[in-house]
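Figure 2 data, in text form.
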Amino acid sequence: MIKGLYVAGTSMITNINKMDVISNNLANVNTTGFKKDRVEVESFNARLFTRINGSMLTTEPGAKDITQTTRGEEVTADTKKGYFRVQTENGIHYGKSVQFFKDTDGYLRTFYKNVGGTIDNLKGDLVLGNKGPIYVGEGTYELDDNGNMLVDGTIVDQMITMVHPSVVGTMSAGIRGYSVLTDHEQGQLEMTNNSFDLAIKGEGFFNIDVNGEILYSRNGAFTRNSMNELVTFEGHKVIGLNGPIYIDSDSFSVNEFGEVIQDGEITDKLTMTAFTNIADVYKVGTGYYRERGELTGEKVNFEGEIIQGFVEQSNTDAITEMIQLIGMNRNYETSQKVITTIDDMIAKSVTELGRV
């Protein structure tokens, strides 16, 4: 009963985090170049419950009847009889299903995602067999219908364990939101007919000098300051190949490659940055991104297109976000009712059973 309080509580906390993120998306639905966020959620490891001094149940006879699906390197397996085992920091987790892949050392592990959304090959939990952690090396591995792990056609271990017959089953330990990820999907381009406005079609960022630090932005709503420098509306300089970009002529143009043309001559070119792994940048401030200390991918040449007289709109869809917000509110209320019900049951147990 107390366990249910924690499960419902984790759901409420996760829903609050989701509602905060959705509310921020809605607040920036008209912000130029804004990219919506989403909360990545995972469940805590379920716990196996057994009877204490309970009756000994007969072990289920017959084949284990395993079903599995494969998506890329990820394998998802389910069993109707017996349990998969995973070595966690809190002990061995027993479950009817398991998701795993082969890490860089040749062992089978569950998936672990870093804050940026990339998979860490050595941080997942080890999948256990009857001989301990399952090692498959460099060979081709597969799980057969009876729970045997085969490498190059040879059985190396058994993944299914038939636990103590007094087992009750597993119970969820709740969920948590472990990171906020940014959706970098292209927003629609809006015509402004303002020659200072620039939009990016494709992947990449403008380089902006913010107080001496180069940050990245998709917001191309620019203007010209008193020194004829191309700047953001906050006054931060847009960086070109020669430093700040100077606009000395009223009849200037920017071509699709980002080259600034004045009086028929190319005077500068926008410095653009793209990343092979978009998770290598994260949001800072209003509409700006900073690259992480250690990149998991690489910086590459900009292969998109610059369009003058347009700006990129927010990729937030207000209707979709509102529907999700309503759903989060309902989930929160449901969890709240669960906590209230359990609290009432505990109160009755204390008062009424105490009289007996």
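Caption note: Helices lie at 2-27, 318-355.
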